[in-house]
Write a structure and sequence with these properties.
The protein is of the alpha+beta class. The protein is built from 13 helices and 39 strands.
Length: 611
Amino acid sequence: MIINIAGKEATIKQGTSIEYTVENRLFRGRDGYTLNITFPLKDCPENIAIFGHINRKDVAKKKVTLDCNITFGLTTIEGAVIVTKISEAEVECQFAQGRCAHTAADPFEDVYINRLDLGEAFFDMALYTPIEAWAGYSAGNIGVALPWINTGYPEANNNQVEISGSGITWKQPDTIGDWKLSVQPWLLKVARAICTAVGYSCDFSAWENSRYRDLIMCNTLPASWGDFKIAHTLPEWTVTEFFEKLELFMGCVFDFDNRRKTITMSFISDTYSDIEPVRLDNVIDEYDVEVSAESNSNCEYIGQKRLMYKDTGHEMSKYYSCDWFIDNAIKKVTYETIAEALNRCKRQTETFESGWERVWYNNAGALIYAKDVDTYFVHRSIGAESVQTDLATGKKTRYTQVYVAQPVNLCGAGCQESETMSDEEVEFVPACVRDTYVTAAHDNGYMLHLSPGDEAHSETDEDGNAYPNISWDDSSIRQPLAASMLESGEETTHTYYDVIYVAFWTDDQLTLTPQPFPIVDHVVITQDWDYIPYPGCSLRLYGDTSYRAAFPKVDPSQKVKFKWLDKSMPNPRAIFHVCGKRYVCEKITATITENGMSQLFEGEFWAIIEG
């Protein structure tokens, strides 16, 4: 066994052995590590050359980490050593590999994404037609300038358009002189900008070739605020937190190589298909099975956890996630197809000879389920409409509710809160898309709704020049970023969003009028009760369209421990075949001696539920 630290070969005590553990990152987000390794210092110039520069008082105050390689036979593992204790006689370290090494020496521990220079996202209205500003990812733009409503100022115009016989044109704003459009950037391009800002290269080709390429980050600020910096729309997350939260949202893995300053990404579902299964044929007779009540399960496997989107309290959050309602709805009606469900439940009318019109909706108080698209929906009222007028007086005498077919629980956790599994919050959250109905004559259809707060409204541009034709009163004064930070005080974090809102946008969504809107699910039902499918555009956390559908299901009540003989350390992310059964591995431990790695391995596994 040869250990190189900081480019120099270290000396270890004779007879030293190291217990090396490799974990499946899908459990606790860890890779490889060891317990303490002791290196002699007294009368050892090789180790003094490596560790002698360390100020021992500083060791107690902060982590000291050094690059490290451990070679045994033809195998070399790269990582870092973390100094845990040092004296005149010896130094104790722990070796960490992969995600463990990155966590131990995280270069982004104090690097926050909302403080980076990620560039700006805006379009000049004079240079972009609506169609050009709504182009898909392949057009190469930083993002798209979709119409949206600031719920704090719903009367203000944000990127809205007017449709007439001459085509689609921008609805001209009256609050800013240079007419800029606020942009929702592509999430992939935001991630790449973060890598560039911290000096790292990245390989996100798997992302670019997936359905997630079409995700936009909906966090944006009104153009009238004059702040187009992408970073200012982000939450107060470190770089590492951003990518860890992204892993949970997209079902992927980001590998950090801090030595080479690279970040690579792969999907977990691809990992399962790419890694060859492992057959353990030399299992030693001694093995243990730990059986526990499910309520006391310590299974941390991501495929077993109950994932849920963070509740941000926006207008549609109760409709997006409502597992409790699915289980407790008083009346449920099931249809084989979405076409049948919509046709039966949409607005029905009957006109009599007298001119009186009867209007009704079938199953208006029920939870409706369409089997073919695995989707529930309810009738949701967006307003009232007159259906009868007294001809003598001209007064409206009868009204009916105007209902839309509102899909529900698309973004639920798939089950109610339970003691049998742990919960995990996803902080990349489906954006709020809802109606703008006031009356039939004043209806812009569905639109993106955002609540960036009211802190950054400004009456001047970036150069301090007053915007023309603006009249401010005391109640409408809103400070720009710098002044808002000063007013908030030193201890207060200034952010407009504490999550990242996401939705899909593709070129073929241009047909969604009168105002185009992004989508959060592949099942889109218009206000006119038309079904428009968008295959692949789904933010569901469960079901056949979720990334978790590819994850094996395990029995959380049984952890099995095996010991076996092998010539090399198997990949813990593989599916293991043992004695005719399949298992997901949690971790594997082996011993590395001066002569190499022991052939005896011990692992912890969870049985896969078949069928």
